[in-house]
Amino acid sequence: MDVYLPIANLSVNGLIIVGLGLLTGMLSGIFGVGGGFLTTPLLIFYGIPPTVAAASAASQVTGASVSGMLAHHQRGGVDYRMGVVLVLGGVLGTGLGALLFSLLQALGQIDTVINLLYVSMLGGIGAMMARESIQTLRAGSSGARPARKRRHHPLVARLPGRWRFYRSGLYISPLAPLLLGMFTGILTMLMGIGGGFVLVPAMLYILGMSAQVVVGTSLFQILFVTMATTMMHALTTRAVDIVLAGLLLIGSVSGAQLGARFATTASPVKLRLALAAIVLAVAARMALGLTWRPDEIFTVSLL
């Protein structure tokens, strides 16, 4: 079933795009990552220009996040107080990211920067998550109890002015989640991701949030930040392909519900290890793509 994408100026198989949406929607429900970290690279591998892939994937992540967040809300797995602070930071970050995106696009370097960001960010975070998960699994199999970790990073404890985030079990400065939200907002604008593959590990290991609310709170933040990102792209870069985004949404909404159900029965440690393996595989493929010459060299630029 061939479908023409007006912004990308390409014809694609609509069923394949729907299948990608289903896959990334399931990842959203399982891991709370929005799925954008996988959607954008897969679209690029399929032949979609990186600028269109990044802009259109952000709108798809919005739909997946709505479905997954509602599923976690029903189980009491969302810290709305923490989520609002993260959203405020994320919206500020999208504004900064829009300026940076336009600058790189004017310089003709946006495609290269998107690929390099994926390789560096996915590789580093994937390696960290894999190491921590393997250490936890080894400690559990040997019967040894892992050393108790701090509730939050020492730098977070030094920030002034503390709030109580009851559902997360934290008493920390709101500046920490605000800055974290800004960082993920910039990444969302540049890479078309929800930022969850950065946000979830940071919420666990930097903020020290309870694992029971991390996924749902992450999806709550991703929902609003990707909405702001889509609007920014539509107004500034004009790279959002509504046909591409619609096909992705068809699959992602149902996939997120399936993923959220599976997440309640699986081991959290094994889920983190699986996510780390997926992240590292995508990073390796992106790095490989930077080293060979494609069959067709093209980009999308604004006139």
From TrEMBL:
Positions of transmembrane segments: 12-38, 44-71, 83-107, 113-130, 170-198, 204-227, 239-259, 271-288
Pfam families according to UniProt: TauE
GO cellular component, one term: plasma membrane
Sorted UniProt keywords: Cell membrane, Membrane, Transmembrane, Transmembrane helix
Membrane topology reported for the UniProt record: Multi-pass membrane protein
Subcellular location as annotated: Cell membrane; Membrane
Presence of the UniProt keyword Cell membrane in the record: yes
Keyword tRNA-binding: no
Family per record: Belongs to the 4-toluene sulfonate uptake permease (TSUP) (TC 2.A.102) family.
Protein name as annotated: Probable membrane transporter protein
Protein's organism: Novosphingobium sediminicola
